[in-house]
Amino acid sequence: MSVITPVATTMRRIAVQDNPAIAAVIRTVSAEYGLTADKGYTVADPNLDELFQLYSQPGHAYWIIEQNGQVVGGGGVAPLSCSEPDICELQKMYFLPAARGQGLAKKLALVALDHARTQGFKRCYLETTAFLKEAIGLYEHLGFEHIDAPLGCTGHVDCEVRMLKSL
């Protein structure tokens, strides 16, 4: 007979000591899906190792998901650069395999969207890739609609799936 150990899961705002762990999560998941830096995916972002500093700026927020004290995922929102001031972007939503299928991405996205509303954003944009079918399904379920043309200047040239949601 096996013993099932309960998993203690927490969601909290990013802290400076989370930088190495969440960068490792993003690099691991990116490698799993073949999302390489040379194609302009998140792993190419120059601030990947300093997410706390990035998301400490006004209008930015990032949440960490921990299970049993280990960082297993995260995601955030920030103003969409080179865009209208009422549009934010859902960014850097990455979860290790052990954290998937538990509703954590949905919970985090809902918190992020609520935060964006309190910051005065009226619309939320995101970019992803067709490789991330589960993520696209979640975004559609949350009310994001597919759009043809990219918004802002994210630099993620190979993110061919673009979505927008009214807040």
From TrEMBL:
Alphabetical list of CDD domains matching this protein: NAT_SF
Keyword set, alphabetical order: Acyltransferase, Transferase
Domain N-acetyltransferase: 9-167
Pfam family, one: Acetyltransf_1
Molecular function as annotated in GO: acyltransferase activity
UniProt EC number: 2.3.1.-
Keyword Acyltransferase listed: yes
Keyword Nucleotidyltransferase: no
UniProt-listed PANTHER family: GNAT FAMILY N-ACETYLTRANSFERASE, LD18367P
Protein name: GNAT family N-acetyltransferase
